[in-house]
Amino acid sequence: MILRLALISGLLMMLAAAPARAADSGAAFEADLERLSEILGALHYLRGVCGANEGAKWRNEMQALMDAEAQAPERRAKMVASFNRGFSGFQQTYRTCTPAADVAIRRYLDEGAKIAREITARYTN
Q1: What are the backbone dihedrals phi and psi of residue 93, each rounded to the nearest 5 degrees, phi first?
Q2: How far apart (Å, rounded) are the C-alpha atoms in residues 17 and 23?
Q3: For position 65, what pLDDT does the model report?
Q4: How many domains does the chain have?
Q5: What is the pTM of this model?
Q6: Residue 8, domain extent
Q7: pLDDT band per the 50, 70, 90 thresholds, residue 22
């Protein structure tokens, strides 16, 4: 799991640091960013409930992603709404860490890493 955490963080940093070629790449890029934002929100909540002691790690990753990709107010608002949806969806479901929460974390880490890799490969130099 530590390897997946490092992978997704590294990929998000690469995405944030690299100039994107996605200015007019369409809805697929937007949908990917919104899904990644939702995953980061879910991880921010679930990792805290499951005692990961990461503090604001996933919120900071989200901030870095928005700083790199959300200059337009409309895009920023969509990404924030997606992050909040991911956070609050699990906040309503999980008050303590359960085996199902651990499964959700693993799946979101995998999906988030996959999206970050695909975005990086497809839209950066």
Answers
A1: -100, -40
A2: 16
A3: 87
A4: 1
A5: 0.79
A6: 2-15+26-123
A7: very low
Q: In this structure, is residue 20 part of a structural domain?
A: no
Compute φ and ψ for 20, nearest 5 degrees.
-85, 150
Selection from 35, 1, 21 nearest residue 120 by Cα: 21
Tokens at 44, concatenated = 């921010």
Instruction: Match 């960013």 to its residue by tokens.
Output: 33
Residue 51: strand, helix, or coil: coil
Half-sphere exposure of 63 (CA within 13 A, CB side): 6
Cβ-in-10-Å burial (0-12, 13-18, 19+) of 118 comes to middle
CA–CA distance from 116 to each of 4, 16, 51, 88, 109 (Å)?
Answer: 12, 10, 25, 22, 10
Q: What is the mean pLDDT of residues 79-100?
A: 94
- Considering only residues 23 and 39, tell me which one the structure prediction assigns the higher pLDDT: 39
